Amino acid sequence: MTKPLLRVQDLHVEFATHGGTVHAVRGVSFDVKAGETLAIVGESGCGKSVTVQSLMGLIPMPPGQITKGSAELMGHDILSSKFIDGQDIRGSKVSMIFQDPMTSLNPTMNIGSQIAETLEVHRGYSRRKAFNRAIELLELTKIPEAEKRAKQYPFEFSGGMLQRAMIAMAIACEPTMLIADEPTTALDVTIQAQILDLLKDLQQETDMAIVLITHDLGVVARMADEVLVMYAGQVVEKGPVDDIFYRSAHPYTLGLRGAMPSNDPQNNQQLTAIDGSPPDLFSPPKGCGYHPRCPNAMVLCNQRAPVIESLSEQHWSRCWLHHADSEQRPQGLYFRPSAAQPNRTPEQKGTSQ
Amino acid sequence: MSALVEINDLTKYFDIGQDQIVHAVDGVSLSINSKEVVGLVGESGSGKSTLGKAVLGLHDKTSGNVSFAGQVLPQKYRSKDFQSRAQQMQMIFQDPYSSLNPRMTVGEIIGEGLKLNKDIDAEEISQRVDHWLSLVGLSAEHKSRYPHEFSGGQRQRIGIARALILEPDFVVCDEPISALDVSVQAQVVNLLAELKESMGLTLLFIAHDLSMVRYISDRMAVMYLGGLVEVGDADDVFFDPLHPYTKTLIASNPEADPESERQRVSTTIQGEIPSPVNIPAGCRFANRCPEAMSICHGTTPTLKKPSAAMVGNESKENRRVACHLFD
Predict the structure, then answer these.
(1) Could you tell me the residue ranges of all domains in chain B?
(2) Å from A225 to nearest chain B CA?
(3) Residue of A158, A221, A259 lying closest to B186 (CB–CB)
(4) Which among B182, B239, B269 has CB closest to A190?
(5) What's the pLDDT score for residue B314?
(6) B254:A219 CB<8 A
(7) Beta-carbon separation of A241 and B258 below 8 A
(8) Set of chain B residues whose Cβ sits within 8 Å of the Cβ of A43
(9) How far apart are CA B215 and CA B231, in angstroms?
(10) Which of A103, A182, A234, B112 is the most exposed, having the fewest neighbouring CB atoms within 10 Å of its CB?
(11) pLDDT by residue (tens digit) across A284-329?
(12) A269 in B contact zone (CB under 8 Å)
């Protein structure tokens, strides 16, 4: 097996606020391989953005603090102060695109110069050479009339065009890894499809790895090779995309899928909402973070945090239902709770509070 | 079924100065039957929200008219018009953060409509507010709190209670779920569907999430650059789109199924929605359309039943399409 490009182990990130300490990320581990797309899925506040921002050194410290864990990019420890302060990797080896391109670009600089700046800083290009390369990059990201467009300012671009310009900037130094934080959430579906196609094409040409953060399972299905499902600062299920969709194991993953309408003409099943809202990360629950909302919660879930249980070589879930001693497990490795039994059985009821 | 709301050749232009006019809604006709949910989809800038607001009188109409239960609504609303219509039609807004007054308690927000429109005492208002809070899944003790103490999903429930407490017949839902997380979206959609059943509501449901619109709607209307391009039963439009724009829109919609996504042929159209200031002559979609013919650049197609020659005899009763391919 080839060595992973990025290996993150047991990452913990906290924020000190007036109200107390927020435990935003609580022990996240994952690998990213070259040429692959890893999708991180979860609801707002689950820690998916904080995870990648801490890797990029974008967490303001204080109030933020990486309290534990390591992250190795091609053998370099990127959480060490040298990498966090410096610009060695940021922008050249790893680059990032953000959800809102309008606020991520400098409104007083023309688009071409903003892209060129990356090349001047990291590659030592002259201003003219960098600007010419910026035009080529705009052409690569399929912006029509790139030469004219490079001299325009962000307000003259539409949302989809700005996201293309952001991508051009991100790939300027041919990064080995691109982090895309909700890159298409602000865009319409037709433009979203264009941007996702563009990312896929670029990945095929350059073999870069993509870490894609999204809450849209449709985007995950279209783009991902590997998927991490995050909830309350932890990864609750991880596996290849087919396992996550066709053999979903964790009740939260199943809940997310049940909450989305199906595109199957025969299937007019009612949406199963997940009741309640995510836990307060000021004081994360002692047991499983999902247990107050889980239709399958047991007494145990409230008391002890579940550990990782392997379901196959690459697929695991953090749920007591999949523990070797669980009575549920022999009924089938892939327990399908919410579809089969939408209501809690009496013995499970009353355990959640 | 009788039409509760008739939108008749409705036009809304905005004058943005320098002799420039935004053609936000341009000649839209649509009738909404009583107890029906009509989903309105389209990209941002297509005019769906403007249409919804113009129907309720929140925008003055440039031309055309809207009638409600057979009665033509005023072209320009005065405050007494809003007051008299408040019990018949309401709106649920997109952004649950900016649409609730931060200085009012939840009880005041929800009860305000009753206070202004019904001749009932404070005691009864309070009882009805409690009742509505429990209907939308909140509790009476939330009444004295302020909007900032609630999550996005809870605020959207407050917005729903506020809109429905007067028991209107017709509600425009302007992207009620797009600011919410997936799991919370399902909570709100299920709530709306339940209330629609129990109260016999008629809804105009504006959204850009096509799968969700198909799920909740009886009929679906597709809007592009101020005009309707296709209308039909939701499943027909979703699974058998006729207009090239609808086809593109449906094909772009990502499906939560890796297998079908791998088999998906890329059908993305290039370019973006043109500016509604300079509307192209002929069909508005012609310059992006993969199937454009010469007639498309000169003659504007009207919304009508597709010809049997093009779609066969099983053409559905409710189907309308504005495309020269189906003339």
Answers:
(1) 3-88+168-326, 99-166
(2) 10
(3) A259
(4) B269
(5) 61
(6) yes
(7) yes
(8) 181-184
(9) 16
(10) A103
(11) 888 888 888 888 888 888 888 888 888 888 898 888 888 777 665 5
(12) no
ipTM for this prediction: 0.79
- Taking the alpha carbons of B9, B12, B17, B18 in that order, is the dihedral positive or negative? negative
Per-residue three-class SS string for chain B: CCEEEEEEEEEEEEECCCCCEEEEEEEEEEEEECCCEEEEECCCCCCHHHHHHHHHCCCCCCEEEEEECCEECCCCCCHHHHHHHCCCEEEECCCCCCCCCCCCCHHHHHHHHHHHHCCCCHHHHHHHHHHHHHHCCCCHHHHHCCHHHCCHHHHHHHHHHHHHCCCCCEEEEECCCCCCCHHHHHHHHHHHHHHHHHHCCEEEEECCCHHHHHHHCCEEEEEECCEEEEEEEHHHHHHCCCCHHHHHHHHHCCCCCHHHHHHCCCCCCCCCCCCCCCCCCCCCCHHHCCCCCHHHHCCCCCCECCCHHHHCCCCCCCCEECCHHHC
Q: Which two tokens stand for residue B78?
A: 């005065």
Contact assessment for residue A273 and residue B192, using Cβ atoms and an 8 Å cutoff: no
| φ and ψ at residue A10, rounded to 5 degrees | 50, 50
How many Cβ contacts (< 8 angstroms) between chains A and B? 120
Residues of B in contact with A270 (CB under 8 A): 190
Whether residue B103 is predicted with pLDDT greater than 90 in this model: the reply is: yes
Backbone angles phi and psi of A48, in degrees to 5: -70, -40
Instruction: Give the C-alpha separation, A261 to B211, whole Å.
Output: 6
Query: From CA A273, how far away is CA B193, in angstroms rounded?
Result: 13
Query: Looking at domain B3-88+168-326, which CATH architecture does it have?
Result: 3-Layer(aba) Sandwich (3.40)
A153 min Cα distance to partner chain B (Å): 18
> Is any Cβ of chain B less than 8 angstroms from the Cβ of A257?
yes
Q: Do B261 and A221 touch (CB under 8 A)?
A: yes
Distance of alpha carbon B132 from alpha carbon B140, whole angstroms: 9
Share of chain B above pLDDT 70, in %: 96
Cα distances (Å, whole numbers) of residue A17 to A43, A67, A117, A134, B234? 22, 15, 35, 41, 48
Please write the tens of the pLDDT for every residue from A37-81. 999 998 888 888 889 888 888 888 788 888 888 888 887 788 776
Torsion of CA B31, B32, B33, B37, to 10 degrees: 150
- How many angstroms separate the CA atoms of B166 and B181, rounded? 28
Whether A255 sits inside 8 A of B235 (CB atoms) is no
When computed from its CA atoms, the radius of gyration of chain B, rounded to whole angstroms, is 21
Residues in chain A within 8 Å Cβ distance of B264:
222
Name the more confident of A273 and B231: B231
Q: Are the C-beta atoms of residues B9 and B64 closer than 8 Å to each other? A: yes
User: Where does the pLDDT of residue B282 fall: very low under 50, low under 70, confident under 90, or very high at 90 and above?
Assistant: confident
Please give the pLDDT value at position A312: 84
For residue A268, what pLDDT is reported? Answer: 67
Distance from CA of A79 to the nearest CA of B (A): 31
DSSP-derived secondary structure for A132-184: HHHHHHHHHTT-TTHHHHHTS-GGGS-HHHHHHHHHHHHTTT--SEEEEESTT
Q: Which of residues 208-227 of A touch B (CB under 8 A)?
A: 215-222, 224
**Interchain contact A271–B (C-beta under 8 A):** yes
